[in-house]
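FW: tagging you since you asked about this chain on Friday. Here's the raw sequence from the shared folder, copied in full. Didn't touch anything.
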Amino acid sequence: MSGIYLHIPFCKQACSYCDFYFVTRTSEREHFVQRLVQDIKSYRDSKFTEETVETIYFGGGTPSLLEPAQLEEIIDTLYDVFDIDEREITLEMNPDDVSAQFLADLKSMGINRASMGVQSFEPELLEFMHRAHSREEALRCLELLGASNFNSFTVDLIYGNPGQSVEQLKSDVKKLLEFDPPHISAYSLTIEPKTRLGKQVELGRIAPPEDDKVAKHFDTINKLFSSHGIERYEVSNYSLPGKEAIHNSNYWEHENYLGLGPGAHSFWWDDSAKRWENEQDLRKYLRSEDHPEKEKLSLKQLAEERLMMGLRTRKGVRVAELSEQYGYTLNDRQLEYLQNREQEDKVKVDDRITLTDGGIKIADAIILDLVTLH
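HL: got it, structure written out here
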């Protein structure tokens, strides 16, 4: 096994852009922790405990809303049930939850990677995103991280916000780079239909940024990160050499993972490949012991997924891997399409298929075209 993902669904408030499952009532945290511990124990002596766990990821929601003692109970239970030889244990946190003592507590229980949701240092952008923290809290948190024993951490930024200028983005990036982050996840703002932001766009109150502006933002962050030795290894992820996220990289390469908590996804490939998702409902999760129905995936589905995920990464996809692991051969129309994109310097094809810097800007369009050619 490569990893375990734990979805901690609590948030202080709803960010305007977020469509992950969360609840803003935090009174049920202890009840949730006990249910999650029970959930972990239910896997004892199952086929899911036969493989070694290399990564654990606390996502959400806001995992930093749990008390250190609650996190420690969850981790102790994982070690008791699973065969864990950890390479990476990550916990997502918001700046307003962090103190020096909190970071020390996390480190003492074995969490060795912090994921900090900064998004921006601009007060008006933080307000637009409906973030719970301030610029000052974000800066203080990064100072605390730098002074702590965490030698591996990542920071989230969001670009392409309506009204966000290139100069504002440069200011955000330059301020972040002062703290020497080993890893950065930089996301183009995505407008999801059921979010607060999606409703505002639907009502015509906010106009989404134009594609050429977003492309300019993308070029700006790539240039600034690269000048500090922080290179893109996936559409939205950048790191110093050797500081790539192990857990997330395993998702993209079809490694097995188990998702625990409401809304968490799992993927398991032994004799056949299956995926399942826990229901996005905390109340049902708290009272139900049923495991969700599993979807069986065909080799063709898996191959197309591998193309979709792999082409978003710097490594791309080995042509031989498609045939050896998935029994998938590119057809004549796909080969012709790749040849045309190669002539446009969007794609490079040798023993691997990779997207160039020009191709990565339109990665979604290229990938969709490629997998739908029959």
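FW: The longest strand covers residues 84-93.
HL: agreed, and Residues 234 and 313 are 4 Å apart (CA to CA).
FW: great, closing this out.
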